[in-house]
Specification:
4-stranded antiparallel beta sheet; 10 strands; Rossmann fold; ABC transporter transmembrane region fold; 585 residues; 10% strand; 6-stranded mixed beta sheet; alpha/beta
Length: 585
């Protein structure tokens, strides 16, 4: 994995390393193509000049070798161009694959905080932009900037053989072209960068709306969402048109320079022919070379535009992708070794950025095999407590230990491999039910998957579905009900069978009958495991060994259900609010 992305150039050079041999072939062919561009008009000059002085009867003898040389050169160039195409085939798709693997590896190592602050659609679009546009940048550099640059040098040398003024005139014209392009390039890149930002915002908004289409329908917000899309599209259109108008100014200046230079060439040819130092073949050579160079540089002006747009897209893509990875394995991190499953918070302090502290010098012990519940109002710190154990965030000070090992010193994969979590929002992959359950244990047999589904009381509804376990569940599991998705996630936890278990409102989407069945299954699943349960429905927590009561980011009470009721604190209020429907006097 690339640890740090500094710039477009440094990132591009790093991903191109495996393709250097094929890039070298492209560069060699580029030199040959550029020399051919200047040399073939020279053969045409010789042919025309000879036709002016030979007799028709001598045409085959005098012109044949030159004609054969011209044809032979065409055949050789055809071979080299196909070699050029072959080398590009070895670069284009494999380079996109290589970049995609690197970026996806980086994205999968990004922190929980990163995905809280960035649209998934926007991140996906930026990954796609980088993968698509880096090969474009390479293609434009090799075929336009590099090859055309060499062809210009070869053309200037060929024109100098006709007259120094032709070479000097072309040099002055090209300098003007380069200076104009350079002066305008920063502005062009900036405008292209802005347009790329706007289109990324459009994609993010569209994905966000489509992901929440049910809410849009239920709250009758189609008009507002259409207006939001329109506003973002208008901003994109304005940015895109501003960039394209700017390129029109550049094209106009370049077009005028082309016309002036060509006019001078015609004037010098006529004068030279009048004075006797220009031949008919020189007319052909100068016209052919200047037309070729003009066409190439006119094409180059479009390539500069495309290069600027692609550069802007890559720069914008890397702006998110270069975001530092907040949570990383320490150098020399070792796998977590679970001997029991005891969790210890040792003088922990934590706060989100620009927020009130959640924990201040907090010490807590969750012994091996104990069942601990986290209770409190929404936003009181329950999920933060769990997220710290999962190391989705790092504590500001203090330590969190599992069997005596600081979770900062072990690998994240081994930490999370030891923990099974059933989240509050059951989200599935757009894959089959079999694959979704097997996600908890990649080498699980079909029989093990079915057994896990039975324990989660999911087997009964799965076998009634079209294609059963092989039914694809739709994006985020949209083809299943909330309760069905929840049971699939529970089955995934059964098949993983981890030593530490976290249940985050694991039965909130189930009906009363299903919940009773699942609670029985949980008793078996939690046996011998350190278990943390987040729950709002307090009657489900009567069998817990200990209950932590959270308020404003702090654990203000702890104990069993009965001891907490006797204390008459927040837990007592929450209990009577749920069981009697009113707060106690």
């Amino acid at each position: 994995m690339i640890k740090k992305i500094n710039s477009v150039l440094s990132f591009t050079l790093s991903v191109l390393k495996p393709f250097v041999p094929f890039i070298f072939i492209q560069m060699i062919v580029g030199i040959i193509w550029a020399v051919d561009l200047a040399f073939r008009p020279f053969l045409i000059k010789l042919l025309l000049n000879k036709t002016m002085v030979i007799q028709p009867a001598d045409a085959v003898k005098e012109l044949g070798p030159l004609a054969l040389a011209y044809i032979g050169l065409s055949v050789v160039m055809m071979v080299f161009l196909r070699l050029h195409d072959w080398a590009w085939l070895k670069i284009s798709a494999p380079l996109r694959k290589h970049i995609n693997i690197i970026l996806m590896d980086r994205m999968m190592n990004q922190s929980h905080h990163f995905y809280q602050n960035n649209f998934a659609g926007a991140v996906s679009n930026k990954v796609s932009d980088v993968c698509v546009n880096i090969p474009k940048l390479l293609k434009i550099f090799l075929d336009a900037f590099y090859s055309h640059g060499i062809s210009v040098v070869a053309s200037i040398i060929a024109l100098s053989r006709v007259g120094n003024q032709f070479a000097l005139g072309m040099l002055v014209w090209i300098l003007f072209f380069v200076i104009v392009s350079w002066l305008f390039s920063k502005k062009a890149v900036s405008l292209s960068d802005t347009a790329a930002t706007k289109v990324t915002k459009v994609v993010g908004v569209v994905v966000d709306i489509l992901s929440n289409m049910s809410s849009v329908r239920f709250f009758c917000k189609k008009a507002e969402e259409k207006a939001l899309i329109k506003d973002n599209l208008n901003a994109f259109v304005h940015a895109d048109q501003t960039a394209k108008y700017f390129y029109m100014i550049i094209y106009t200046l370049q077009g005028l320079s082309f016309t002036i230079f060509h006019g001078f060439c015609v004037w010098w040819l006529i004068q030279g022919f009048r004075d006797g130092w220009i031949t008919p073949g020189d007319f052909a050579l100068v016209f052919t070379i200047t037309v070729h160079v003009v066409n190439n540089l006119w094409s180059l002006s479009k390539d500069i535009k495309d290069f600027s747009e692609s550069y802007g897209a890559v720069s914008q893509g890397l702006s998110i992708l270069r975001a530092p990875i907040d949570i990383q394995d320490m150098p020399g991190a070792k796998p977590l070794v679970i001997t029991q499953g005891t969790i210890v918070f040792e003088h922990v302090q934590f706060r989100y950025k620009d927020a009130l502290p959640f924990f201040q010098d907090k010490s807590v012990v969750i012994p091996y095999g104990k069942r601990v519940a986290l209770v409190g109002k929404s936003g009181s710190g329950k999920s933060t407590f769990v997220n710290l154990i999962l190391r989705l965030f790092d504590v500001n000070s203090g330590r969190i230990l599992i069997d005596g090992q600081d979770i900062k010193t072990v690998t994240q994969d081994s930490l999370r491999e030891a923990i099974g979590i059933i989240p509050q929002e059951p989200v599935l992959f757009h894959r089959s039910i079999m694959e979704n359950i097997r996600y908890g244990k990649k080498n699980a047999t079909d029989a093990e998957v079915i057994e896990a589904a039975k324990k989660a009381h999911a087997h009964e509804f799965i076998k009634e579905l079209p294609n059963g376990y092989h039914m694809v569940v739709g994006e985020r599991g949209s083809k299943l009900s909330g309760g069905q998705r929840q049971r699939i996630v529970i089955a995934r936890a059964f098949i993983k069978n981890p030593p530490i278990l976290i249940l985050d409102e694991a039965t909130n989407a189930l009906d009363t009958i299903s919940e009773a069945l699942i609670q029985d299954s949980f008793s078996n699943l939690m046996h011998g495991k350190t278990t943390i349960v987040i729950a709002h429905r307090l009657p489900t927590l009567l069998g817990m060994d200990e209950i932590f009561v959270f308020d404003k980011g702090q654990i203000i009470e702890s104990g069993t259900h009965h001891t907490l009721l006797q204390q008459g604190g927040l837990y007592t209020n929450l209990w009577y609010a749920q069981t009697n429907g009113v707060l106690p006097a």
